[in-house]
Amino acid sequence: MEDYPRTLLELEERFSSEEACREYLAALRWPQGFRCPNCPSQEAWPMGRGLWLCRGCRRQVSVTAGTLFQDSRLALPLGFRAMWLVTSQKNGISALGLQRALGLGSYQTAWAWLHKLRRAMVRPGRERLAGEIEVDDTYWGGLEEGRHGRKTLKKAMIVIAAQADGLGMGRVRMQRVMDLSAPTLHGFIKQVIEPGSLVHTDGLASYARIEPWGYRHQIGIVGSNRARASELLPRVHRVVSLLKRWLMGTHQGAIAHDHLDYYLDEFTFRFNRRKSASRGKLFYRLAQQAVQIDPQPYRTLVHPNPLA
Known about the structure:
Blueprint: H1 8-14, H2 18-29, E1 44-48, E2 51-54, E3 60-62, H3 76-88, H4 95-102, H5 107-119, E4 132-140, E5 156-165, E6 168-177, H6 182-192, E7 198-202, E8 216-220, H7 229-232, H8 234-249, H9 260-271, H10 279-290, H11 298-302
Parallel strand pairs: 4-7, 7-8
Antiparallel strand pairs: 1-2, 2-3, 4-5, 5-6
């Protein structure tokens, strides 16, 4: 049974102590009961302060060890409030906004915690899109004089897939890429779209010949009239518009290219759960995924792995 707070008041009352937060994380991490990460044992004795003594190997296991919460500078009650602020607000929150809301003395702490949470917004083993999918590319960055079409030196290139849901839109996937070559675009399609799906693209040659990978391909020719692109691929262009509005609105456009992927992950997390009836459920999903991913040291947040 999914267990989560419905309101900010309920969150504040329920998770005001480290112990209450640890108990909640233990239930999320071990929904079927304790599992030792060091041996096959499924039995342990609670020792307090989030520690469990494994009956099999006698190892002391922390409920936060090996999760996003390991070695966090933020006390767990504040971390829970941060998750609530991130998920309860429709457009999210900036690092400066989080710093002010939590009364943190350091902007760096707020920035780092937001980036930790963005790492948890990609569910391990998530399903690929299926059915009818639109795929197109866009750019993020300032104007470049003398550059036209798909040529760019300073802008970040982004590929977006948007799933059709009747006349509406289903889920999306997006990713920053280094180029728009056939290997890159085919790799993105194979990664995020289930074979057998109908893939709609424009006439860019790099999208051609995806049929051998098990996809049906429908091509829309834009020609010299770029305005037609929004008619041929309306869903993906709607997503592009919303994405750029969010990046400029919530984050004022101040996003380095090396960190852009994680903002794309946050937008995807929000967009794919836009129909959720409860903000508390988004909090639950984020906390659930946070105990499933590895720790994220500060150095990996500041210097993420560059694109190959």
